[in-house]
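Form 12-C: Joint structure prediction
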Amino acid sequence: MDSKAVLVTGVIGEDVHVTGIRILEHALRKDGFTVHSLGIHNSQEDFISKAAEVKADAILISSLAGHAEMLVQGFREKCDKAGLKQTELYIGGQLVIHAEEWEATEKRFLDLGFTAVAVPFNPPGNVLAELNERFCDSRKKTTA
Amino acid sequence: MEISNRKWSDDFFQKEREEVLSQWSTGADVDLDDAVAYHKSLPDSQNAALKTLKAREEGKTLLCPSLGSDTVENHKSLLLHMQNEAGVDILTSYIDSLTRNCRFEMASQGLMKAEATGRPVLNGFPFVVHGVQKTREVMNAVDLPSMLFGPTPDARLTHEIGLAGGHTGYSGGPMISFWNYTKNVPVESVIHNFQYINRLMGTYEEQGVPILYAVSGAMPSVSPPSLMIVPEIIEVLIAAGQGVKHIQLNNWLQGHVAQDLAYIQVLKEKADYYLKECGFDDVETITYSVSPTGRFPVEADQVYALISHFTMIGVMGGVQVCGSRTIDEALHIPTKEGSAHSFRNARMFLNMLQPQKFDISGHSEIQQEKQIMELEVDCLMKKILEIGGGDIVKGTVKAVKLGILDQPYSTSQLVKGEVLGVKDEKGAARYFDMGQLPFSREIKDFHREKIEAREKILGEKVSYDTIIQDMTAISAGSIL
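Section 2 - Result
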């Protein structure tokens, strides 16, 4: 089966929470995506250099420690500068420490240039549906 | 030197000790003769190995928390509270995470801040920056034995200080440290560091000071017990190879009574079997049980029920030591008051059940679980020993590369990570994906049938979404 899309996955920052992204990687691979997993403890640069190397269609960032906003400041711009303008950015996990309405959290990250933001404990099925719609359906349309 | 399970020579060990003891200034204060004399000045009741052996002889279950604080004063008051208010039998000194990562300079700064402000800064006891005398100050203030606690890829200097400081045990191990506490450290490096720790424990044993080494294997996440038992047996054999004589086997209870009770029996029987098989016939094993980390309910009344449930399984399984989670840990780092409430709850449950010596070991469901678990453990152990040419360390290094030793959700990039567990229709953990595990048709069929039974009830195939539900089920209020 041809790969549906090339993805780079990993946890950003000094965060060791790996369960969520690991299970998502299983689901993505099984569904036909090519997954390059960076595991825990990654910097913005780690994501960018891997994405450039494998010509990633998207970068999926996981973060559970609540420091995500700090850790992804300027990430979209750095990706663009590194020639990754076409690479979409996704993020999910426990993104903020404080309690706030989900819409506020979501907007915070959309404003930082992310294509989509996943709610805490978003099931893998939802992520697959979103990525399939994004990458497979649109490709089918363009090749048709 | 190629890594193997051979006992380190004195020369090799002493050379490495010099290097380790020079990692921080307090290393210079470690004197083995003085340490042995200090241990011998303490009563037997303050030795974890002797205390647990006595419990085994008397058919008793002891209680043991896992806590630590940063300054000598804070840690002392925490341990005294656990001894006097929580009524536990064995104490622990949880190692702070900076010390666990050998960041002694940062730990030192954290400790100074804690001492200056009187408020805790570190999440455990920084053994290395405290040094031997300060550690003894804590031990002199309490009447119970205390063990070091906390997996880490390199706790060599921490052990030099902690054991010389009067601690008589450690809970952790090379496999659990590799799976869950490293990203790119090869398994052989972690094993090497643990051979040092085990060789040091063996040296104390040779001098007549029993040390209790608690292997931990792997932390479960809806994991069939063979995923924990095999790495634990590997840790047992590595320890025995360096002269460790007292080993505590850690049973990670997940809440399914028959599967958990079978786990307790199989781990003990198989650990003893492989010790003999590999030529170690003077190693004592005792058993311990605890529920794993993972999401817990926030409401204290729900956690009390869970603590009781897991204490029940431990007591019915006849373990010598029971650990427990605490009522407030879903909210923050457990307080000493929260821990005391939790352990008093466990004690009451234990006191009701233990004198009854209620024996259900012959129950058919437990027997069925045991049978399949034994097949899985033997299959993996035989394969690992075979590819290692009879040497468990060589076999382990190869087996990790091949995925014969594998874990779900490992933090290490050097682990295949292909295996996954899911619950069956009764809440027992089964293999959803066996990855590269060389299991027989019989084992594969067993797990498939159990999962199909759940699918029948669900009315759909189990999926990755089901696995997530399983992992969060207990925090949501149910085993399934």
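Section 3 - Comments
The interface with chain A takes residues 181, 183, 221, 408-413, 417, 420, 433, 463-465, 467-468, 471-472 of chain B (CB under 8 Å). The CA atoms of residues 61 and 318 of chain B lie 7 Å apart.
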